[in-house]
Amino acid sequence: MLHFQKWKVILVGAIVFAGFIFAAPNLIPSSALQGLPSWVPQKQVNLGLDLQGGAHLLYRIDEAELVEDWLGTIRGDIRETLRSNRIGYVDLNKNTTARAVSVRIRKPEDVDKAFTELKKIAAPVGNDVFGGFSGNDMEVTKSGDKITLTATELGLNDRISSAIQASIETIRRRVDAFGTTEPSIQREGRDRILVQVPGVSDVQRLKGLIGETGKLEFKLVDASANAGEVALSKKVPPGSELLYSEDEPPVPYVLKDRVMVSGENLVDSQPGFDSRTGEPVVNFRFDAAGAKRFGRATQDNVGLPFAIVLDNKVISAPVIREPILGGTGQISGNFSVQEANDLSVLLRSGALPAKLSVIEERTVGASLGADSIESGKKAAIFGMILVVAFMFVAYGLFGAFANMALLVNVALIFAVLSLMGATLTLPGIAGIVLVIGIAVDANVLINERIREEMRSGKSPIAAVDSGYSRALVTIIDSNVTTLIAVLVLFWLGSGPVRGFAVTLTIGILASMFTAVTVTRMLVAAWLRWKRPKELPL
Predict the structure, then answer these.
(1) Which residue, 171, 111, 168, 167, is CA-closest to 143?
(2) Which pLDDT band, with edges at 50, 70 and 90, does 59 fall under?
(3) Whole-angstrom Cα distance, residue 308 to residue 234?
(4) Distance, CA of 516 to CA of 401 (rounded, Å)
(5) What is the number of other CB atoms lying within 10 angstroms of the CB of residue 26?
(6) Is 53 within 8 Å of 368 (Cβ atoms)?
(7) DSSP secondary structure string, 390-414?
(8) Rounded-to-integer distance, Cα 83 and Cα 269, Å
(9) Least crowded by CB within 10 Å, which of 72, 216, 415, 472?
(10) Is the model's pLDDT at 442 over the cut of 70?
(11) How far is CA 139 from the centre of its chain?
(12) What is the DSSP string of 468-519?
């Protein structure tokens, strides 16, 4: 029936009104936004990298560093396993080229026991077709008194996948703190990460923030060694290491190998100012375990210097004046306000599992984005004019009703994009242009069905009611099949493909609402007002 209950009319009217209200900031010139009432939302759709300009960075994870750290972990696990089982050993060495760690067992009678225990270090990884494990991350072999643990290709791939995922999460936290909107961070291939950040102007600062590994360590300074002499002779005392500061020229430091506390125990870091000097600093806070270790280390070494090391560079090396038992501290190092802020973001976001190197860098200018937006606008307007003209010529007044619904459709698309906080890309604009073309399909089906009903001798009201009712099933079928294909695009696609799928999905759902509900209400209101004996179709 063409009679609508009052609450349905109010609901549809509210949806249409809200659509235009939320779409208004995107459909009118930016200069006119200030003239809108204060209760009108001012939020616009986020523009993607291809429209707004910004940074396009492709990173590769340092596989060699990843393997080096992994072999170091395996070496430590071997040492701990053999010691806990009281098995003597010699020549515990790692071979980065062969991706292996080998150890010789001191007593021949302990070889079999050591081999059994060391096999437990290997962990199953990978899923086979049945959902189980397809292999181990290490191959354990023995030859005489020598036992070798070799990283498998399957284990390395699993390690890289885990590192890539961890890196993506860390990069996302850093970029979010940078203050940009809707960055795109995704895996590319085996060992690469693509970072696209729209609207960023300081690309060098962004690269510095992303590229820093962020490995924070607190180590004691070896007070028994003369750093200057060690730097010249390169003869580092056993149990120590030689590192340099970031000063110009770099200052050498001889530090103990043992890490007092690492950045893994850090739970928060915030920029601030020193209460005495007023200089920018970074205030940090450890978790319970880190606070306990830091407190014990500072209590046992009062009067001795300790170094704060970030990515193997000494930031500062203050002297421990008194035990630091509260789990909080302060990093100073002649920072600027921006450097202190970036360092706090770096520490707060956590360390990268391995170094990232830029292998491709592109900067998209805003002018290119403006040209793309202008071209998209022209295409959308030209397409809409042609569609509107066709519908009006082909169906007259009923075509005008369909054109009104088309305007509502476009408004709803921009309103939903604004509410979702979605990003509009150039393929997304293409999706909107396509929606304009297919949004009137449902009205074409309805109008042709009404014409058939009129030829069979039905009255105008009966013909319209029957036309909408019988065309509904066909409209739902055609749109649902299209929607399934678009959802598959969104599920399997990425980047531009997803942008296209998002706008097309919203457009299809909006067109089903406007074509079936909005136009039906307009036709029903016209029929009640005019009560025509024939339809202008």
Answers:
(1) 111
(2) very high
(3) 22
(4) 11
(5) 18
(6) yes
(7) HHHHHHTHHHHHHHHHHHHHHHHHH
(8) 38
(9) 72
(10) yes
(11) 35
(12) HHHHHHHHHHHHHHHHHHHHHHHHH--THHHHHHHHHHHHHHHHHHIIIIIH
